[in-house]
Amino acid sequence: MIEIVFRRCIVVLPTLLLVSMLVFGMQKLLPGDPILTMAGEDRDPETIAYLQEKYHLNDPIPVQYVAWLGQIVRGDLGISLRTEQPVLGLIVQKLPVTIQLAAFAMVIAFVIGVPAGIISAIRKGTATDYAINVVALSGLSIPNFWLGLMLILLVSVQWQLLPASGYTSPLEDISQNLRTMLMPAFVLGTGLAGVLMRHTRSAMLGVLRSDYVRTARAKGLNEKTVILRHALKNALVPIITLSTLLFGELLAGAVLTEQIFTIPGFGKLIVDAVFTRDYAVVQGVVLCTAVGFILMNLVADLLYIVVNPRLRDAA
Amino acid sequence: MNCVTKLLSAVTVLVLASPTLAADLRIGLQDDADILDPHRARTFVGRIVFTSLCDKLFDINEKLEIQPQLAKEWSWSEDGKTLTVTLRDNGKFHDGTTIDAAAVKANLERAKSLPESLRKSEVASIDSVEVTDATTLAIHLVKPDASLLSQLADRAGMILSPRAFESADFGQNPVCSGPYKFVERIQNDRIVLEKFADYWDANNFNYDKLTFIPISDSTVRLANLRSGDLDIIERIAPSDIEAVKGDANLAFYPVTGTGYQALTFNLKKGDKDTFPIGYDKRIRQAFELSIDRNVINEVVGQGIFQPAYQPFPPTSFAYDKKFESRQRDVAKAKALLAEAGHERVKLEIAFGNNTASQQVYELIQAMSAEAGFDISLRPTEFAALQSALKEGNFEAGQSGWSGRADPDGNIHSFVSCKGNLNDAHFCSEKVDALLEEARSLTDTVKRKALYDQAEEIIQDELPIVYLYYQPWPFAARAKVKGFTAYPDGMIRLKGVSSEG
Predict the structure, then answer these.
(1) Do A174 and B14 touch (CB under 8 A)?
(2) More confident residue, A213 or B462
(3) For residue B463, what is the domain's CATH number?
(4) Residue B247 pLDDT > 80, yes or no?
(5) Do B346 and B444 fall within a single domain?
(6) Residue B19, pLDDT score
(7) pLDDT at position B12, please?
(8) B132 occurs within a structural domain
(9) Is A310 inside any structural domain?
């Protein structure tokens, strides 16, 4: 087993190296000089020269890359060129915000999507089924930014019920945290609810046709028990797999919603960093995301081997 | 009532409970500030935060006149090479230490010598600073510099605690001298300041807490103001002006800024045959005659893009109305083009890819086409546009300047032969001499005469076509009383309060 882990880690290392090269190289391809952004409106040549020297931007790109890699290996992601806050600190500060938003959105998606999918499957071909499908399709088609703006105008401006944007940590004020999270989570969640509804519907339709459901009905069980205890349990398996994938996507894909509702999360951090040419933040955030995905894959591979002895021999 | 209902009720009560306090002021900014160290900061929004956080030696009023702040009195020597400043004796830093002449000297020296200082060019004329007594200091200059007072009325003149500014994390935990002191900052989320009880003018500041919230989308920023989540916002979009004016809960505070939006021609691009507009001033004059700035103001600016024909705003002593006589004249533009030997001229304009700029340059494209210009538009992301301008990788490019209180700051770097911001690569020994002389005098009448002469040449050569003055449109909740919009776009809270 140790040998297998060792062999897998050897495969991971070149992958990480390749990712780091891509992250660094892509950043360098962006037009726009970060030093000019840092040097301010006056563009004082002395300051520009000093900053180029300080951040080694006059060195050849391979030299810069090796220096950056050395820094990363020592566990130092650097500091934001814009505010001088440590990049690692920023990631630690922003990631929980996005995780909370994604989790809330998933809850909303589940609460709306799964029951809608079940009802739609049970009432297949009826007016209810068509109506749910139309609503789900609308949920999928309405762009997040439009729905977000409309909700802000209606709920915040017109009714003055919830704050239009911003974020408060739950540790600071749980009530304000819920107030700020509700609309963005709803916007993200409704889009996903459509996806979940359609998958739940098709999974339920498949399960409802299976023999054991017919057997359950033949035993005289009431319809509620058949649907919820027997059919839904099996139909949920692919839904849960899909949900984990959607959750991963949400962590990286909540950018627009974070921008509209000014949620200081991971997506907003990276978008703002790209526009201000804050190389250290962009590189740090993208690298961390990539490392996260690679490590998750490694763990999954190892778990497969633990669970399935046949794979151990193959490995 | 079952458990689920109870839980839902509790969450609803929590969610709908509004936590805001009357003595707090929430200000919506267009961007997030950069490092919170005035000597190293570069952003406009950073200056807005510093206005409440850090006192300066001087300040300006609505007419751009120099006013006392930490400096109580000042005087120039006969030769204009020594500025004697007397400080108020009741100034305190946020760490409780006293603001004295030695502290001011340490600050000016830091602004001048700190390697990362972005204020070096602003205090370049300072040779040495001499402490005469606890509240008096003499600032000796290399050569007379009339713009120094206005520089010291901005970030270069902000006074930070010398005990704190040696610290490596000063930019994250600034210790300053203004009416509000630093509490916390969460990047991209908020900057919080609280009232400094020992401030020398504390009685005139009515809020206990300020929160600066960056919201880049102007529609969302306005929605936050309308919902009452913000009290003041800066830079409302021209398209939202009518909505603000029509809302009884809001007040609109427009002001023409000290800065401008302009179009710079690259006079060193290609050669006479491939890029004639860079080498023949008649073609540039024809271009200028083909555009109507009033149309830009009415169509895109909704009345707040006041047409600009010169770098000096109407509030500046260097401004002269005579330069505003040139109006659109397509026939004359065509005649000038013909005189230069062209029927049609091609030109590519690079500009920032935002809605207002897109509309402005589409209008310019349409108007100049009537006179014989075939304009192609290159919308460019802001950082990339800055690089293109600096590297000369453009034919004509949008240049915006936030403006300075002293006229020197709006012209010298842009048109002097070795100016940092001379993206046009314009060079005239006569203009250089006039601008240098204007910089060395303190008499505004004499300075204006020199700027007039320089402007005559620049208006003839046209390396830069000024389009409109940068407006700083603010909107606030109607309950906010005593707010005044200043031409430098800063938010000064002295005397501002909220009713109810």
Answers:
(1) yes
(2) B462
(3) 3.10.105.10
(4) yes
(5) yes
(6) 44
(7) 53
(8) yes
(9) no
Q: Inspect the interface and report whether the beta carbons of B116 and A277 lie closer than 8 Å.
A: no
Exposed, middle or buried: residue A199 (CB in 10 Å: 0-12, 13-18, 19+)? buried
Separation between Cα atoms, residue B249 and residue A159, nearest integer Å: 14
CA B363 – CA B366 distance, rounded (Å): 5
DSSP code, position A41: T
Same domain, B131 and B206: no
Which residues in chain B have their CB less than 8 angstroms from residue A54's CB? 115-116
> Is A292 part of any domain?
no
Q: What local confidence, expressed as pLDDT, does residue B21 receive?
A: 45
Please report the residues numbered 203 through 242 in chain A whose beta carbons come closer than 8 angstroms to any beta carbon of chain B.
none
Contact B420 A166 (CB under 8 A): no
The pTM (predicted TM-score) of the whole model is 0.87
Those of residues 116-145 in A touching chain B at CB distance below 8 A are none
Mutate to test the interface with A, among B37, B117, B170, B387 (most CBs of A within 10 A): B387
- Strands B190-195 and B209-214, sheet pairing: antiparallel
CB A83 to CB B383 under 8 A? no
Task: Name every chain A residue with its beta carbon within 8 A of the beta carbon of B7.
Answer: none
Kindly state whether A43 is in contact with chain B, defined as any CB-CB distance less than 8 angstroms. Answer: yes
Domain housing A140: 96-279
Which residues of chain B does A179 touch, with a Cβ-Cβ cutoff of 8 Å? Answer: 14-16
ipTM of the complex: 0.81
Any idea what the CATH number is for the domain that residue A148 is in?
Answer: 1.10.3720.10
Indicate yes or no: CB of B187 within 8 angstroms of CB of A85. Answer: yes
**Same domain assignment for residues B94 and B198:** no
Q: Could you tell me the residue range of the domain that residue B476 belongs to?
A: 24-30+178-255+472-498
Q: Is A93's Cβ below 8 Å from some Cβ in B?
A: yes
A149 with B120: Cβ contact below 8 A: no
Residue B85: inside a domain = yes
> Domain tally for chain A?
1
Give me the pLDDT at residue A161, please: 92
Q: Does any domain span residue B327? A: yes
Tell whether B229 and B250 lie within a shared domain.
yes
What would the pLDDT profile of B332-388 be if each residue is shown by its tens digit?
A: 999 999 999 999 999 999 999 888 999 999 999 999 999 999 999 999 988 889 889
